[in-house]
Amino acid sequence: MEKLSQLVPKGVNDLHAEDFEIKEQTIFQLKKLFKKYQYKQIQTPVFEYYDLFHEIEGTLNKDQMIKLIDTDGKILVLRPDATIPIARMVAQNYKNAAPLQRFSYVTSIFRMNEDLQNIQSREFTQAGVELFGKNGVEADVEIISLAIQSLHEVGVSSFTIDIGQANFFKKLVDQIDLPVEEMNGIQRLIEYKNFAELKRTVDKLDINEELKTALRTIPTLYGEPEDVFRRAFQIANNREMKEEIQHLKVVFETLVAKGYKRYLSLDLGLINHLNYYTSIVFQGFITGYGSPILLGGRYDNLTKQFGYDTKAIGFAIYVDRLIEAINRNKGGV
Amino acid sequence: MKPITFAIGKGRLVNHTIGLLKEMGIEFPEYHENSRKLIFEDQLSKIRIVLVKASDVAVYVERGAADIGVIGKDTLIESGANVYEVVDLGFGRCRFAVAGLPDTDLNKKRLVVASKYPKVTSQYFSKKDQIVETIQLNGSVELAPLVGLSDCIVDIVETGRTLKDNGLVVLEDICEITARLIVNKASFKTNNQRINDLIQQIEAMVNKVGDLVK
């Protein structure tokens, strides 16, 4: 055999005994916690039809999916996301069951990723939960509390759960008639908190001043909660935006009452690239680690696309990043 | 209290940035242009600067080794880093342009473009629905059209002198470039108050963001 210049493809890696042990321990702690709160572990196939992921609304970037060709010529993809297949599974099998279902998972996710320097960029582990059949403050608080407890459970003390509202932004931009490409550009500027370029772009738009001010204000809606809610109410120019912000306020206050204030932050400019989120969204950050280690939110429109209309909220922990972040903080770097 | 770390690309942005911080009362007396030292700290304000290669600033910030970075928009686009781009600092102003010999036909089929910025190049031409061949070079890009390596170049133009001295002209402007203040997302979220105060101070000194709901 000709000697390969590289024995392992980019973006995947081996896990040696010591590291595997740490990962097992971390996963074990998370699973124990999920079980304690009645989340039952499930598993979906490693590969499924490309159409499943590509036809639904607000899916992830199609170029990022790793594709295979089946014997009958159909395109398959390696599981690029945990939530979509679980929504599919629930819609198929639980239509006639009790509406309230709690599921958990620990699974590998596969994505094509440009960041090939990162050895875990194409295969990584996610552990998470999904709560079906329930919306409202209680469900949102349950899930965010569980996210906080999960990070506690694995020994992280200094972290932030950053909460946003996907629909607040959607209902604002619904009023603006712009080509998709241009709107995506503005969304990107908001996501990157590029205040200066956002101002330049928004100033040139042919829309009324009220909307311009709202667009410029969205990425600044972070920080001191009282101030954020007050300003958010000011730019909420329709009933839906007001309701979303009111709901978020109640969720936030309930979490504060539970003693979680020091872990919480607010950012209404938080726009997740996974567009299936329909309401509350959140990300978890650990001090000193650059990327989010936890992502979650409500996605009430997803199961409907598979023929079963039910409410849903959940989160996923990036287990490998979490371990890396914990190790880095231990090293005192 | 942990210091807040600024990563600054070595070169023309360093003096600008140090000058800006000085106006805010943050000083690094040990720093002078010929110093070989790469790390400086202001004990009072707990702010540290590290000098890195310009193209590495984004990596330091994205991975959290630095909380804040000062970087040219050119290098930032090329890096594709996932960071907050919070302030347009206004200095380090120049522009991206397509340049070449005066009679270059940019509409020819199979245009060959040499550049240090392959991403910017392909983005620009694909926006114009034009398929081009991009050759990535690491320096002296102006040479490429002169020796027949490429039809034209995509590069940053500050005064235009290098182009002129080599008999090249700007054929098309792509966009303006200025230095940007970038922030690591986790630092922004987990060290909110201090970082925010700093950003706001810097912002107040360089530009205005327009009407906001206060």
From TrEMBL, chain A:
Pfam families according to UniProt: tRNA-synt_His
Oligomer and partners: Heteromultimer composed of HisG and HisZ subunits.
NCBIfam families per UniProt: hisZ_biosyn_reg
Subcellular location: Cytoplasm
Protein name as it appears in the record: ATP phosphoribosyltransferase regulatory subunit
Pathway terms, separated by semicolons: Amino-acid biosynthesis; L-histidine biosynthesis; L-histidine from 5-phospho-alpha-D-ribose 1-diphosphate: step 1/9
Domain Aminoacyl-transfer RNA synthetases class-II family profile: 1-326
PANTHER family assigned to the protein according to its UniProt record, in alphabetical order: ATP PHOSPHORIBOSYLTRANSFERASE REGULATORY SUBUNIT (PTHR43707:SF6), HISTIDYL-TRNA SYNTHETASE (PTHR43707)
Keyword Nucleotide-binding in record: no
Function: Required for the first step of histidine biosynthesis. May allow the feedback regulation of ATP phosphoribosyltransferase activity by histidine.
Family, similarity comment: Belongs to the class-II aminoacyl-tRNA synthetase family. HisZ subfamily.
Any further remark recorded for this protein: This function is generally fulfilled by the C-terminal part of HisG, which is missing in some bacteria such as this one.
Keywords: Amino-acid biosynthesis, Cytoplasm, Glycosyltransferase, Histidine biosynthesis, Transferase
GO terms for MF: glycosyltransferase activity
From TrEMBL, chain B:
Record-level Gene Ontology MF annotations: ATP phosphoribosyltransferase activity
Swiss-Prot/TrEMBL keywords: Amino-acid biosynthesis, ATP-binding, Cytoplasm, Glycosyltransferase, Histidine biosynthesis, Nucleotide-binding, Transferase
Cited SUPFAM superfamilies: Periplasmic binding protein-like II (SSF53850)
Top EC category: transferase
Subcellular location: Cytoplasm
Domain ATP phosphoribosyltransferase catalytic: 53-203
Catalytic activity: 1-(5-phospho-beta-D-ribosyl)-ATP + diphosphate = 5-phospho-alpha-D-ribose 1-diphosphate + ATP
Pathway in which this enzyme or protein is active: Amino-acid biosynthesis; L-histidine biosynthesis; L-histidine from 5-phospho-alpha-D-ribose 1-diphosphate: step 1/9
E.C. numbers: 2.4.2.17
Domain remark text: Lacks the C-terminal regulatory region which is replaced by HisZ.
General function of this protein: Catalyzes the condensation of ATP and 5-phosphoribose 1-diphosphate to form N'-(5'-phosphoribosyl)-ATP (PR-ATP). Has a crucial role in the pathway because the rate of histidine biosynthesis seems to be controlled primarily by regulation of HisG enzymatic activity.
Family: Belongs to the ATP phosphoribosyltransferase family. Short subfamily.
Subunit and partners: Heteromultimer composed of HisG and HisZ subunits.
Designated name of the protein: ATP phosphoribosyltransferase
